[in-house]
Every structure is written in structure tokens, then in C-alpha cells.
UniProtKB/TrEMBL annotation:
InterPro entries: Antiphage_assoc, DUF1156, SAM-dependent_MTases_sf
Entry keyword annotation includes Transferase: yes
Name listed for the protein in its UniProt record: Adenine-specific DNA methylase, contains a Zn-ribbon domain
Organism, scientific name: Methanococcoides vulcani
Membrane spanning residue stretches: none
Length: 966
């Protein structure tokens, strides 16, 4: 029977999903940084990987048949994640040293001689060796040598033949297949909508693979980025070439103006490359002027530091630059700034503030009314302001020629009198233009509205307008740039003007001109600037940098075609009136990112040209309408949004909600929101989408949960107590289905996926009913709750996770033994299994603890550091941790102590003597041996090096206990 003759009842994503492979591809895309397709347009927070969107859409369009293995094979072929597809994506050769790791001794002798590939092999033979080794590699290793799926045209002709045979289609390209599958389901090519379009991932990728798309967002910056993704990145070669040409012209014109002014050149003809500034305050203890420096290190690679020399006469400090210092001096300079943890360390050794740092609140005089609020005309501090500003270092570029080759040498130097005169010239040039440029819209003139994030610059610096975040040099350069865009290039195609407008945002954030919050990073290989938005807030820096123009035009990418029709507008999510077959959304939740405030940084620059480019759009961040918080108003707003989307999709339509929380209460709220909106959860999958960046250190969520939803059509009614046994059955059914299709050699699911599957199973049961008699859903959504008051569904969800934790017995432990253990023992053993899989996220262990109903487990942890969490080994437990009550008196704890004794005494007699004293030793001997073998197996895992010695002791002890007799 062909697929087209089977009634479409369930999609592929509602029955299975290759979580592991999609996660790895998503991670690879994230790690590409600036090489990602859409990041070249500008900053947005939380863009989802394009491969995730593509996989989700294929998952919705492909049917689930009675041959799940074949369904999976075809799905992977479409995404070029199968063996043949990955070989097709291979872009670089595997080096000789890597090849040899995958060859047997005989194979090495055939191909290599003294570590080098033997001569005489033909190109075909070398290619055969590459393929032979490539196919032996694991998925993760292969990815290092592959393009991303989006960077190639799609499956090979050979793969298309198998795809068409299975699906009953006749396609040779992805857009052709999308059209065929859409017509089969909906009678037309599928339409995809996103009313929280953010950085544009969903509309862009949906349109690229052939869907018609609708994208909207309350925030006009988000809509601008989404429009740009489709019309500039997806605009084809002609638009790309025009953008590159115009951008070079703008950079050249600004560069010529700067040369004419002479504000970036010194008397030797050297051009400045970077300017380093710091704030300066008066110490309230000794009256000396203190330069506020987070570190005295300027260049880690060049070993460049600054030293503060006291000037007793003027009660201030000369700053001296030293290059090529010793490693010891670099280390000392790195940790010896004058600002630490929002406290000022006075460099005057005779000052009390030298030994006892002074709180910044005292410097700001918060108790006396705080800082002076800047006026619109202010561009530098007034003489009486608390925070003054000082240019303390310039990096110059000296160009010289040898043998016809131009070389460049960089010099860090303290500004001299001529440099300071040039700073005054910059201020004068800006003052001449400030009012006019603000009236014309070349410079920001918007007031900073108070808010959770925008209060920071007001409170800590007194800045009240957006242009206060920029110093005169930055405003002058960016103003020149904007003036050219709005005058000389206004007749260019809209795409060209928009791209250059977005370039201002990039210059203000990541490309170096920056603002007064641009970090200087002495640890970068090139000793350069960081980004303004390294986190999701407006941080005000005590020292910062600005760079001169660095022409980095749009990268020349493979031509991207957009096949689907598009509608992109700014709009409130609950007032969308366009029908779509699929809605894929990543909604705001619990103020995780306050988009409406953060985006005003860019809106201040784009406001006037946006009105001219898109007269039908508004240019307000619409703060008042933004969905905020997590209270009853938030819940009501979310119900309105998703009820509206449900009303604007067909009966066969579906939604995917992307979700990133791991809190049972939040999930319970989400269940009620979706339930009240007339939706039923049919599946959920957790994809790892975040990179392991230190900027996100903490217990942040690394996974994105995809909740698949259909319209709720049931009229069934249930009582809450009837739900619990149904949830238990559904959880076990879900876990069994995942275990059956999991690949033991290359797992599709991680430990947290199984826990999240329990959440999904609970939501599936809860949302399949029209009503649960015990719950007045409208009342629950609209009422405020007390501090520790729970959502009535929270117990159901917590119980689901407990069922999953109890059901998933660690490999190597008999289920009967598992059932005899107390919750703390299960948590410890299951936690060790998480470790063995390389899981160190704090949230994973917190989730596990919740599943077992454990509140306190710190005494079981060796490391509590975020993303470095692990449990104690047998030897790391202290003597006093054994005996007493609870886990300390448990069988597992006594076995661990016996292992420790065996290792310490280097004799199994000590361990045997201890464990023999455990009550019921002879009856529990079989269980003890099994647990000892479990601990012995840990040392064989590369992720468990800390268990090497203890596992040897456990193995020896297991043999002794097994052979023990009365």
C-alpha cells in the first residue's frame, strides 16, 4: 500500500523524532557564530536554529506509517542526516593522523608508512579510504567534516528515488516535495505562520523550503529583521551584489570624511585602531581621583599592562603602558583593577579604601539623591558630575614597507597633548551637528523609558536619552554613516537601504564602533572588542573601548532562493487574522528576555528611516502591549493568543510551541493555557539548541522543547483522581516507544529527554479531555496565587516525572533490586548514570531530584558549579556521612563506604568487614554484589575518570562478597 492511499492520521513528529541528530546539527549551527545564515543581519535574542525549523516542518508534513523504521530512514534522508547524506555534505578531507585512528594494524600497514600515506594511490583509492573511515566515525566526529544541511541543495538523486518510493511522490527538490505533501493534506502548498517571529528563523526557513509564510511580531525591530531575512538574505545574487557595492561606497565615504577631519591620525602619520576609555571618580575617603578599571591588563597576547603612578601634587594617577612584561606581571595585572564586584579599590595605598573597598552606591551618593540626570544636549559629563570620563590609551597602527610589502605594527600608547586636542576637536565637530542631525534622524533623540532593564543606565550613570549611551567619537562616526544612508543612497532599492541601516546597529553593537558599554577584551587572540549585548541587559561599563571603521561587508553566501509567498507585518499576536495550516511559535515566557526594552537601543537609530521605508508600520516598541510576567494577566494574554491561532488554522492543521522551562509549575500553567485555547498536546521533544558559552554560565536551560498540538475535538469529561492512572500508563507507553527506537550505538535521546517525555505524556492526557470536573479552568487562569500555592495540575505533572524516574532503571541494575531502594539511593545511582552520559547541567540533577521527590541532596554532590555538576565518588564521601538516618544509613551508602575502606587499606578485608555488619547482609548479598558490579563498571566510562580507582576496589570487593560464606 502506498503512502498516498493511507488516511493521514498522525504525523512523523507525533510518533518519533531523531532528537539526538537534530540536537547535534542544531549545536553545530549555533557554534558557527557569525557564519550562521541570519546573524549577519544583526542582533536578536534567542534565534532558533534553522535546521530545527526545517526538521519540525518535515516532521509535521510526513505521515507516520506502520513501518516506523522506514519512516525514520526517509526522514533522515530528507535532512541529509543519513550515511549517504552526510557523505554528500562532506566538505574537507580527514587528515592522515585521524584516518589512522580508525584503521586496524593490517589496514594501517596497507595505507601508511611511518605515519604518512603511501605514495602511488590513485585519487579514487584515496577517496575510497576517506569514505571507508568516514563511515566508521560516530555522528559527532563526522559533523566536523561536513557542511550544514542548509548549505547543500538537498538529497542526492539516489536518495530521492527511495524518498519518492516511500511517500508516493514524484519530486526531485525539497520545494517540489513540500508542495506535493501540502496539496495532499490541505489542497494547496502549506502555509506556515509565526506571530512571535523574533529574528525570523521560522518564516525564513519555511519559505526557503517552499511554504507560504506569515510572520508578525509586536516589536518592529523583530519584523524588520524577519523582512530582511526573506528579502535580503533570500534576495538572490542581484540584491547581494548591490548591497556589497553600496556598503563599500558608504564605508569609503565615511573613511574619507574622517581622514579630512584628521581625528584618527597622529603626528607620525599612524592611524588609531582602538581607543580605551575609563570613568574617573573622586574617592570619598582620601579625595584622590580614581580611574575605574576592571583590570590593568590590556593585551594578554602581547603582555601589555598599565600601571598607575600616584601624582601627589594633583591627587590623581598617571597611567603608564608597558608592553612585553613577564607572565607573572600579566597575572597580577589581570586581577588588580580598581573595580571589583561593584566596589571601588582606591589605588592610594594610604587610603582606607585601599584595604576596604568602597561600595559604588556610596560613590554615586544614592543616599543623597543619586546622580545628576543628563539633559538632551549633554554628550560628555559636566565638570561637577560624579562620573568623569578619561581616554587612557590608544592603540595605533604603524604601516611600513619592506621589500615592496606593506606591514602593520600595533602600538599601545598613552594619549599625549595632541591626542587630547583631537578629542576636543571631536566634541566640537559633534556639537556643531548634534541638533540638526537629531532633527534629521541621523542620531537618536529618543528618551530612555524607565523599565526593568532600561533603568540601569538611568540609575548608574544618569543617562536619560539613548544618545547618552554613546561617546562623541562614536556618535560622530555613526552619524556620518546614517547621514549617507538617508541622503546619497535613498534612491537605492529598499533592500539596500535596509541592510545599510541594519549595519548601523551592528556597528553600535558587535562591529567595534560600539557605545559606552563596549567591552575591551584583552584575552582575545587579536586583543579586541567584545559585544555590547554579551548578555540580556544594558550593562554600564566603568571602562570601555571604541574602534575605528573596520570594513566587513556582507559575506558572500551561496545564493538562497525563497520559494514561498510572504506576508510580514508588525502586529499584536492576539489580533492576527490570517489563516495558516501550521503555526510555529516561540512565545515570551516569564520575562526571560525583555525584548521590548532591549530592542529600543536599535529602534532609537532606525526610527525615522523606518517610517519612510515602511510607512504602514509603526515605530514604537509597544511596551504597554507586550506580553510580560507570569501572573494571571500573562496567562490570560497567552490564552487569547493561542485561542486566536487555533481559530485561524484548519481542522487538519497543527501547532508547534517551542518552550524552554523545566519547572513543573510553569509546565502546569502552560498546560492550562493550551487547554483553554482549545488545543491538545500530541507529542513533545527536547532539542539541545544552546552552545556551551561561558556568557550563559549558570543553571540555564540548554534544550528547547517542541510541543506538538492539534485542535481539541473530544467531549470527554474526567475527574482529577481518574487522571493519575492514565498518566502512569501514558508515561510508560511513551518511554517504551522511545526505548524501542533508540539507537544504542548513537543514542537519539538523553536522560533529560526521558524526563521531559513524562511532562509531555501528562500534558497529552490532561489536554485530551474537554473538561476535568475538579478544575474551573477560567478561574485558575484568572486568579492570583499565593507564594507557595500550586497550580492544581502541578501534582499530576510531578507524579508523571516520578513515574518516569522509577521506571527508567539504570543499565546493569535489576528492576527488583531497584524497587527495594529508597528515593535518595535511586537518585544517587541514576545521577551517576547521567554523569556517565556526560551530563553535568545543574538543571538535569534538579529535575531528577524533583522526580524522586527529594528536596535536599547537596551532601551527595562533589561539585555544585553550574554546568559542572557531579556526584561524589565512594572515596569523596566523608566518614561522618555514614550511619544515622536516611541515605547515610542506606545500603548504597554502606557499600560506598566499604569501597572506600577497600581502596584506603588496599585490602578487601576492610571493606568486607564493614559491609558484613550491615543488617540483613546474608539476605541482601545478591543485591550487594549487583550494586558493587554497577560501581565497578563506572571506571570503564571515559566520562567517569574520577571513578577509576574506586571502581577497581568495587570489582575486587564484588568477587569477595560473592564468594563469602558462613
Amino acid at each position: 500500500m502506498s503512502v498516498d492511499s493511507i488516511p493521514f492520521k498522525k504525523s512523523f513528529i507525533e510518533s518519533q523524532f531523531p532528537v539526538s541528530k537534530v540536537s547535534k546539527e542544531s549545536y553545530k549551527e549555533r557554534k558557527a557564530g557569525g557564519g550562521q545564515t541570519l546573524t549577519s543581519l544583526g542582533k536578536w535574542w534567542g534565534r532558533k536554529p534553522l535546521i530545527l525549523i526545517r526538521a519540525a516542518l518535515f516532521g509535521l508534513l510526513l505521515p507516520a506509517t506502520d513501518n516506523p523504521a522506514r519512516d525514520r530512514e526517509i526522514f533522515l534522508k530528507l535532512l541529509t542526516m543519513d550515511d549517504e547524506g552526510m557523505w554528500q555534505r562532506k566538505k574537507s578531507s580527514i587528515p592522515a593522523n585521524e584516518l589512522q585512528k580508525y584503521l586496524s594494524s593490517r589496514e594501517k600497514a596497507k595505507y601508511f608508512d611511518n605515519g604518512k600515506l603511501r605514495s602511488g594511490f590513485s585519487r579514487e583509492e584515496k577517496e575510497e579510504l576517506q569514505r571507508f573511515v568516514f563511515m566508521r566515525m560516530g555522528y559527532d566526529v563526522r559533523l566536523k567534516y561536513c557542511f550544514r544541511p542548509e548549505e547543500i541543495d538537498g538529497p542526492s538523486p539516489k536518495s530521492w528515488k527511495k524518498i519518492n518510493e516511500h511517500l508516493g511522490t514524484n519530486s526531485s527538490t525539497i520545494p517540489e516535495l513540500i508542495e506535493e505533501l501540502g496539496i495532499r493534506q490541505f489542497g494547496a502548498p502549506p502555509s506556515v505562520g509565526d506571530c512571535f517571529c523574533g529574528g525570523g528563523s521560522v518564516p525564513f526557513e519555511a519559505a526557503r523550503i517552499g511554504c507560504n509564510v506569515f510572520g508578525s511580531d509586536l516589536n518592529p525591530i523583530s519584523v524588520l529583521l524577519t523582512w530582511s531575512s526573506l528579502n535580503i538574505i533570500g534576495g538572490g545574487d542581484e540584491i547581494t551584489s548591490k548591497v556589497i557595492k553600496s556598503q563599500k561606497e558608504i564605508y569609503d565615504a565615511v573613511d574619507s570624511q574622517l581622514k579630512e577631519w584628521g581625528i584618527e591620525y597622529n603626528e607620525k602619520g599612524w592611524r588609531a585602531d582602538a581607543y580605551l576609555y575609563c570613568n574617573e571618580v573622586v574617592c570619598p575617603e582620601c579625595g584622590w581621583k580614581i580611574p575605574l578599571l576592571s583590570s590593568r591588563l590590556i593585551g594578554g597576547k602581547t603582555h601589555t599592562i598599565i600601571e598607575l603612578e600616584p601624582n601627589t601634587q594633583h591627587k590623581n594617577f598617571h597611567i603608564k603602558v608597558r608592553e612585553g612584561v613577564t607572565l607573572k606581571e600579566v597575572t597580577e595585572a589581570k586581577s588588580s583593577g580598581t573595580v571589583k564586584n561593584s566596589k571601588v579599590v582606591c589605588p592610594n595605598i594610604d587610603c582606607i579604601g585601599h584595604q576596604s573597598p568602597i561600595k559604588m552606591s556610596r560613590i554615586r551618593r544614592d543616599h543623597e539623591g543619586g546622580l545628576r540626570l543628563w539633559n538632551k544636549e549633554d554628550i560628555i559629563p559636566l565638570p561637577d558630575d560624579i562620573f568623569q570620563e578619561r581616554l587612557y590609551c590608544i592603540r595605533w597602527i604603524e604601516e611600513y614597507e619592506t621589500h615592496g610589502i606593506i606591514h602593520a605594527k600595533k602600538h599601545y600608547m598613552i594619549p599625549d597633548e595632541y591626542d587630547l586636542e583631537r578629542e576636543k576637536q571631536v566634541v566640537a565637530l559633534l556639537k556643531e551637528r548634534l541638533v540638526k542631525w537629531q532633527q534629521k534622524g541621523y542620531l537618536p533623540s529618543r528618551i530612555i523609558q524607565e523599565g526593568d532593564k532600561t533603568n540601569e543606565p538611568i540609575r548608574t550613570r544618569g543617562w536619560t536619552y539613548w544618545h547618552h549611551l554613546f561617546n562623541p567619537r562614536q556618535l560622530l562616526i555613526l552619524g556620518c554613516f546614517n547621514q549617507l544612508i538617508q541622503t546619497k543612497f535613498v534612491s537605492e532599492p529598499k533592500e539596500v537601504v535596509v541592510y545599510n541601516l541594519l549595519e548601523i546597529g551592528k556597528l553600535a553593537d558587535i562591529k567595534g564602533i560600539g557605545c559606552r558599554s563596549l567591552v575591551w577584551n584583552p584575552h582575545k587572540s587579536k586583543e579586541g572588542h567584545g559585544t555590547v549585548f554579551s548578555n540580556q541587559s544594558f550593562k554600564t561599563m566603568y571602562d570601555y573601548c571604541t574602534r575605528t571603521l573596520d570594513v566587513v561587508g556582507p559575506s558572500k553566501k551561496k545564493n538562497i532562493h525563497i520559494f514561498g509567498d510572504q506576508t510580514i507585518i508588525p502586529n499584536e499576536a492576539n489580533s492576527v487574522n490570517i489563516n495558516c495550516d501550521f503555526w510555529i511559535t516561540d512565545p515570551p515566557y516569564a520575562d526571560a528576555i525583555i525584548y521590548h526594552e532591549l530592542s529600543e537601543f536599535f529602534l532609537a537609530w532606525y526610527e525615522k528611516p523606518l517610517k519612510e521605508l515602511f510607512p504602514e508600520w509603526y515605530t514604537d516598541s509597544k511596551r504597554a502591549l507586550a506580553i510580560k510576567g507570569s501572573d494571571e494577566e500573562f496567562r490570560k494574554s497567552m490564552v487569547d493568543v493561542y485561542r486566536n491561532l487555533t481559530n485561524h488554522m484548519p481542522e487538519m492543521g497543527a501547532q508547534i510551541v517551542m518552550f524552554t522551562h523545566q519547572d513543573a509549575n510553569v509546565w502546569a500553567d502552560l498546560a492550562m493555557i493550551l487547554w483553554a485555547a482549545g488545543l491538545q498536546v500530541t507529542a513533545a521533544w527536547c532539542i539541545s539548541t544552546e552552545t556551551d558559552t561561558a556568557l550563559k554560565a549558570g543553571n540555564y536551560v540548554q534544550g528547547t522543547v517542541l510541543l506538538v498540538l492539534r485542535k481539541q475535538t473530544s467531549d470527554d469529561v474526567a475527574f482529577l483522581d481518574e487522571i493519575f492512572p492514565e498518566v502512569e500508563e501514558e508515561v510508560k507507553k511513551q518511554l517504551n516507544s522511545m526505548l524501542e527506537i533508540d539507537d544504542k550505538e548513537d543514542p537519539n535521546f538523553g536522560d533529560t529527554d526521558y524526563q521531559l517525555a513524562a511532562y509531555a505524556a501528562a500534558l497529552r492526557v490532561l489536554t485530551r479531555y474537554k473538561q476535568i470536573e475538579d478544575i474551573d479552568i477560567e478561574r485558575e487562569l484568572s486568579r492570583s496565587r499565593g507564594k507557595n500555592e500550586k497550580n492544581p495540575l502541578e501534582g499530576v505533572i510531578e507524579n508523571a516525572v516520578k513515574i518516569a524516574c522509577d521506571y527508567l532503571v539504570p543499565a546493569g541494575i535489576d528492576s527488583w533490586v531497584w524497587k527495594q531502594l529508597m528515593p535518595e539511593e535511586r537518585f544517587y545511582l541514576k545521577g551517576l548514570e547521567l554523569e556517565s552520559h556526560g551530563e553535568y547541567r545543574t538543571g538535569a540533577y534538579q529535575e531528577l531530584a524533583r522526580g524522586f521527590g527529594i528536596r535536599e541532596y547537596k551532601n551527595l554532590q562533589q561539585s555544585k558549579k553550574a554546568n559542572m555538576t557531579r556526584l561524589k565518588t565512594a572515596s569523596e564521601f566523608k566518614d561522618r556521612d555514614v550511619g544515622g538516618e536516611g541515605f547515610s544509613a542506606s545500603l548504597v551508602r554502606n557499600i560506598l563506604f566499604a569501597i572506600r575502606q577497600t581502596k584506603q587499606e588496599d585490602d578487601t578485608a576492610a571493606g568486607k568487614a564493614w559491609i558484613r555488619e550491615y543488617p540483613g547482609y546474608w539476605e541482601k548479598r545478591k543485591e550487594i554484589v549487583e550494586l558493587l558490579r554497577y560501581f565497578a563498571s563506572l571506571g570503564m566510562n571515559y566520562s567517569m575518570e574520577q571513578w577509576q580507582e574506586d571502581s577497581k576496589a568495587a570489582k575486587l570487593l564484588s568477587v569477595v562478597v560473592e564468594q563469602d560464606h558462613v
